[in-house]
Amino acid sequence: MSLAISPQARDALEGWIAAAGALRGNAPATLSAYRGDVVEFIAFMTAHRAEPQGLAALSRIEVRDMRAWLAGLRSGGVGSRSVARKLSAVKAFYRWLAEREGFEPTAVLTTRAPRFQKKLPRPMTEDAARDMIGTVETQADGWIAARDAAVVTLLYGCGLRMSEALGLTGASVPLAEALRIVGKGGKERVVPVLPVARTAVDRYVALCPFDLGAEDPLFRGARGGPLNARLVRKATERARLQLGLPSSATPHAFRHSFATHLLASGGDLRAIQDLLGHASLSTTQAYTSVDGAHLMRVYEDTHPKAR
Q: What is the pTM of this model?
């Protein structure tokens, strides 16, 4: 980071980052984003208040300072979603710092994030999901076609995130009836593997020209390195254009489709939450797109208090 903050503030920030990593199990990329957001906040306050922001100065942040920071973000073209994320990081830092230093962080913690509409990729229909998988396989030749088809089949058939599918190693094959996945925040879950997914991966492995060692990435790029997610996105984009599907038909939409189609078939929302690796049931609900009448039928058929 090129932004200058005081050594005292930087030491406090690194202490918080270490605690967040150890206690909450945040991923390195998440911690890096937190660090960047808080550094930018402290750098802004340094310029705005025209004084170094040591611990004493940080403890004296007022409501008007927070308003100036938010206004600065918005005038700089930062969107509501990003502003909310930055504020969340600053609040988390202040909770830790206030407990450690013994001051009242009310001005920071009571600052409200801007409202924004959460935009999740819309799920595909079952026919569209099947057509997408089949068409992805036609976007390349040989083992690369088999590779791309295997990846998207895992996304749809197991509800994996792209990073989780590309994080599989040679030790995963041949795929068992269930996979142990380490997701966001180091949270582990077990997901069943459909026969069609095992078949797709087996076909890729049989055709792959590279040695798939137990510790090596399962999915490889053309030169043998780890497969870049960008290549999968390109393959799915070509497939959706060929099929005339909307721009919402992305790799991540396979995961939403997995959840929605399970729920539409009578799947239990709690079970789907476990399969997706969501910490909150509300997140799982947001991932599904099933009409209210159907949800009521599922509730009436499955909830013991509805009988």
A: 0.63
